Amino acid sequence: MSTAPLTPAQLGQLPKLNVYVDETGDRGLANGASPFFAMTALMVPHEDDWTVRYAACGLRGLIHTSLPNTTKPLHWVDHFKAKRPERRYRAARALADMPSAKVVHVIAPKEDIRRDYYRGLQNTDRFYNFTCKYLLERVAHAARNWPGGPRLAIVRLGAVKGMDHSQTAYYLNRARRGDFDRFGLAVPWQYIKWPPAWTGTDWDGIQLADIHAGLLNVALTGAKDDATCAENLLLCKHQLHRSPAGILRGVGVKVIARDDSFVTDRCWWKKWSIA
C-alpha cells in the first residue's frame, strides 16, 4: 500500500536539512570559456550545522593568521590557489571530517552544451537555470530519502553577479508545476522549503560549498590520466550522496551530456565512485 502524501503542515514539522549551493566554472560558451560549468550542493542536517561553522571558522583561522577571529569570507579563487597546496589539503580534510554531510555535484561539459541537442542552453542565464534545476531535483530526492527519515530542505545558493535570480525562481516554479516533465519523472519538490534563497558569501555553508566546488574544478581541469589532481577530491568521496540502492551516477554525480564520459573516463573515477 502506498503512503499518503504529507500535508503542508506535516512537511513543515519534518526535521530540517540545511543545503548550501555554489558553482564553479563560468557560464560562457565562447572559445576561452571554462571547459565545464558545475554546481555543488552541501547538505547538512540542521542539528549538525555546528560542523559547518566549526570547519569554516577553523579554516579562516588557519588562513588569516594575523586575524584569527575574522569573519572575512573564504573564497576558493582567493585563498586556495595552486601555489598553496597545503591549504587545499587542509580544506579537504576539514570538509571530510564533517560526519553527517552529503554532497551532490551537477557537471555540464561545454562541448556537449554547444551541440544542437542543448541549443536552448546557449543563453547563459538559461544554462544556469537548467543546471540549478537538475541540482535541486537531486536535493529534493535526497531530502525525501535521507537516512533516518525524510527532511525538509532549506536551500541557500550563492548569488551570481549580474544574474536576475527572480527569473531563476520563476523557472524553478515552472519546474515544480511539471512544465518541463516530459518523461513522467515525479520530483518530490515538496521536500524543499519554497522558495530557495540566493545569499552572499557571508554564510559559512556557502563558503564550504565553494571549496567543495573548487576541489571538483581542480580534478576536472587536470588531464584525464592525472591522478594527483583529484587527491583532495577523493578525501571527500564518502560524502557523495547515493540513492537508497547505493547508486551514485545520476544521483550524487550528474553529468549533463549525452553520456558521462567527461567524468567517467578519468583515471580517478573508479576510486571516486566506490563508496
Mean pLDDT equals: 93
Structural class: alpha/beta
How are helices and strands ordered from N to C?
HEEHHHEHHEHEHHEHH
Distance between the termini: 32 Å
Radius of gyration: 18 Å
Largest sheet: 6 strands, mixed
DSSP helix count? 11
The backbone outline, from C-alpha atoms, is globular
As laid out across the biggest beta sheet, the strand order is 5-4-1-2-3-6
* Percentage of residues in helical conformation: 25-40%
Instruction: State the total count of DSSP E strands.
Output: 6
Stretches where pLDDT falls below 50 for ≥5 residues? none
In what range is the share of β-strand residues? 5-15%
What does this 3D model show about the protein?
- With 275 residues, the protein is an alpha/beta fold.
- It has helices at residues 8-12, 50-63, 76-79, 85-96, 110-113, 124-144, 165-177, 204-221, 231-234, 261-264, 269-273; strands spanning 16-24, 36-45, 102-109, 152-158, 197-199, 253-255.
- The protein has a 6-stranded mixed β-sheet with strand order 5-4-1-2-3-6.
- α7 links the parallel β4 and β5.
- It starts with 7 loop residues before the first helix and ends with a helix.
- The mean pLDDT is 93.
